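Tutorial handout. Part one gives the primary structure; part two gives the three-dimensional structure as tokens.
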Amino acid sequence: MTLQHIPFEQFNAKPWKNGLGTTYDIALLPEGADHNSFDLRFALSPIVEDNIFSAFPGVERVITPIEGEGLNLEFDDTESQLSLYQSLRFDSALTPMGRPLSGPIKVINVMAKRHSWHFLSCDVTDRNEYDIQSGEVLFLFALESCCVQSGDAVVDVAKQGAVLVTGAAGVSVSSVGSGILRAHLGPCLADN
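Part two.
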């Protein structure tokens, strides 16, 4: 089991793939991956004005507004309006127009390479106990300051900090306040 604490100060600011905004990479897997070649990506992205999303073919994305009034996503043939803490999963090859509601917002993007990883869950929750199996990944993003513990490892996580847990483990979170954004992912089996 590995518990990696990633404070906000360690997030890596980069331009959006399409150059129309800035994103903060929290973690990319495997180690050494970049925006053009990753299996898993966790990122914090401010959306300050209407903008078209970048395309990531072969990738499933879950987006969740964590600050602001919400986000309207306009796809070619459909539209989704997300309120604060509401998650939406979609094919990241699509490039919807993102329109923040009532001013700038921040979102968390969790992106998984199709046929390599699948989402077991990705949402804002007030759960404080998690069990992950060998080969799985648990990503936790603190909406408020909290404490994360797994075995003998204990970390205090400031608001907008993150924790990445890999390997079989039980994980507990205390002082979750309004909740925590968690993404639990598992590897796809070779015959699927």
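Part three, for discussion. The CA atoms of residues 142 and 160 lie 5 Å apart. The chain has a mean pLDDT of 94.
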